[in-house]
Amino acid sequence: MSSARSAVPADRSPSPAPLRAISLQDLGALRQQLKDRAAQQAAQRAREEAERRRREREAAAFAHAVGPVTRLPDRNLHEGGGRPLPPPEPRQRELDEQAALKASLSDEVDLESLLLTDDGLSFRRPAIGLDVVTRLRKGHWSIQGELDLHGLRRDEARDALAHFIHQSHQHSRRCLRVVHGKGLGSPGREPVLKAKVQRWLAQREEVIAFTQATGPQGGAGALIVLLGSRPRGRVPVA
User: Fold this and answer.
1) Residue 148 forms beta bridges with which residues?
2) Could you give the strand order of the β-sheet that contains 222-227, starting from the edge strand earlier in sequence?
3) Can you tell me the distance from the alpha carbon of 211 to that of 136, in angstroms, rounded to the nearest whole number?
4) Cα separation values, 102 from 57, 107, 115, 140, 147, Å
5) Torsion region of 189: left, alpha or beta (phi above 0 gives left; psi -120 to 50 gives alpha)
6) In whole angstroms, how far apart are CA 133 and each of 137, 179, 193?
7) Are strands 122-124 and 116-117 parallel, antiparallel or unpaired?
8) Is the pLDDT of residue 102 over 70?
9) Mean pLDDT rounded to a whole number for the chain
10) Quick check: 140 and 174 in contact, CB under 8 A?
11) Distance CA 51, CA 45 (A)
């Protein structure tokens, strides 16, 4: 006797899940995204094409200006292995400046005939008032740099002083101390460099005044030097 119910196959697979319906609004948004992307790609291609044409025009103009060229033979020179080249050094300019500084300072200058002095221990330019020297002696300006010339020979001291004054002025340092020594170790216990340093300083246009240091600042073995202000807008030379 056959069963009234129909048999269900044992290997029947489950029905697939129904697909989610996409609304017209979603389709519109997707279509707009595709349209925007296509417009961006077209704009990018247009920019690249314009850049390519610009480079071609520049290359053509350069080739026309230069004319025919001949490639030099390869001499198999080393190109540095890709390492960056060292920065250029203005050696000749530095040598010229050193020579000019050295030549500009003489030992034969007479301070009394060149510029005004008060008691031989201080100095000021004719346009500088006595009050500047007084304030300089009393420590009105703070010391911004110091040079010690102990142990240097005359030429070494002259070069060191010229460089020190030049660099200080370039970096807008106004008040300096120059230690020349008291001559305790010199023949006759006389300060050999003292008078020379005074003459050298008087010849530097950056120096507008100097005076002998007070006891705490070095006394008779040092000078306090005041430089003029550096004009604005100039870049310091390293």
Assistant:
1) 179
2) 116-117, 122-124, 207-212, 222-227, 175-179, 145-148
3) 7
4) 54, 11, 21, 31, 17
5) left
6) 6, 18, 22
7) antiparallel
8) no
9) 76
10) no
11) 10
* Contacts by 126-132, CB closer than 8 A, 24 or more apart: 128/208, 128/209, 132/208, 132/209, 132/226
* Predicted local confidence at residue 13, as pLDDT: 56
**Helix H segments across 67-189?**
91-103, 111-114, 130-137, 154-170
pLDDT digits (tens, 9 = 90+) for 162-191: 999 999 999 999 999 999 887 665 555 556
Is pTM beyond 0.85? Reply is no
The CB density around residue 101, as the number of other CB atoms within 10 Å, is 17
Q: Enter the tokens of residue 151.
A: 């142990």
Ranked by mean pLDDT, the top range of 64-73, 77-86, 104-113 is: 64-73
- State how far the Cα of 70 lies from the Cα of 59, in Å rounded to an integer: 17
**pLDDT tens-digit series, residues 3-25:** 445 555 555 555 555 545 567 77
The Cα–Cα gap between 230 and 87 comes to 28
* Parallel, antiparallel or unpaired: strands 222-227 and 207-212: antiparallel
Label the pairing between strands 175-179 and 145-148: parallel
